[in-house]
Amino acid sequence: MKFVNRILATCAVAVMSLALATGVWAQDAAKQLSSESVIETIKKRGSMRVGLDFFVPWAMRAKNGELVGFEVDVATKVAEDMGVKVELVPTAWDGIIPALLSGTFDVVIAGMSITPERHLRINFTNPYASSGMMIAASTQAAPGLSKASDFNDRKYTVGGKRGTIGVDAAKKYAPKAKLRQYDEEAIALQDVTNGTISAYYTSSPVPERAVASSGGRLYLPVTEPFDGSLESFAVRKGDPDALSYFNSWILLNTHSGWLKERHDYWFVNDDWKDQVDVK
């Protein structure tokens, strides 16, 4: 009996030692993960570097040279809530993920839609906005069409901004059409307005705004957004602390109504249009 008791006591001590060791290891692992997070880098630096590109009304250059738009408001408030400054880093869209991975900035806040292909390279936060695809079509080059797939003909040339889901939509609905990819949305809209291309696929509300200001040179082949998408922040993989922080921020600002108020200001109203040169 004494022998059995000694065995049980030895086992109990071993279990307690293992539990203590596991707890210490877990604490050390948590500290290491926290110290390696971009959140700690931002706090130490005193600024948050945000990658974005120009999309109306997500991010635009105002007449006074400053950046304005929904994304600018979001990024600025995230930084303010962290107690740091915001550094906005405009980056060409097709290079924005490589720039994030190389450490050029800490996070992408640029209306980036969640896609499985992108998710293989980066991590997405919970969505903070949603949008849908629309088409601005040329009344000169492609009159009278009424579906996204109506442009699926070799006689048409369709466009999208390089690296965006607009290009994906053009390939999906008009695979037979010639595809032209653009680095700047303003040039694409000018080309479709002039009839150089037949249609431009991009997220709402850009086509609606372009049609309204085109003087009849553009029209909407579809009247409702299609292929809806969810927009999220993008961060580098292997950083659970950053994902947790940004997800919490999105949750709180969704619940408070702040994100909806800012989204409605830029996407529903036109109170800001005199600040920028876009129509």
Shape: globular
What value does the Rg take, in angstroms?
25 Å
How many DSSP H or I helices? Answer: 10
Question: What number is the mean pLDDT?
Answer: 88
Q: How would a textbook summarize the main sheet?
A: 10 strands, mixed
User: So what's the oligomer here?
Assistant: single chain
Number of strands: 12
Write the element-wise H/E pattern from the N-terminal end onward: HHEEEHEHEHEEEHEHEHEEHH
In helices, the fraction of residues equals 40-55%
Distance between the termini: 90 Å
Structural class: alpha/beta
The low-pLDDT segments are 21-34
Give the percentage of residues in beta strands.
15-25%
Description:
With 279 residues, the chain is an alpha/beta fold. The protein is 42% helix and 22% strand. The protein has helices spanning 2-36, 38-45, 70-82, 96-101, 116-119, 165-173, 185-194, 206-212, 240-255, 258-267, and strands spanning 47-52, 60-61, 67-68, 85-90, 107-113, 123-124, 129-138, 157-161, 178-182, 199-203, 218-219, 226-235. The strands form two sheets. Strands 1, 4, 5, 6, 7, 8, 9, 10, 11 and 12 form a ten-stranded mixed beta sheet that branches. Strands 2-3 form a two-stranded antiparallel ribbon. Strand 8 (157-161), helix 6 and strand 9 (178-182) form a beta-alpha-beta unit. The relative contact order is 0.16.
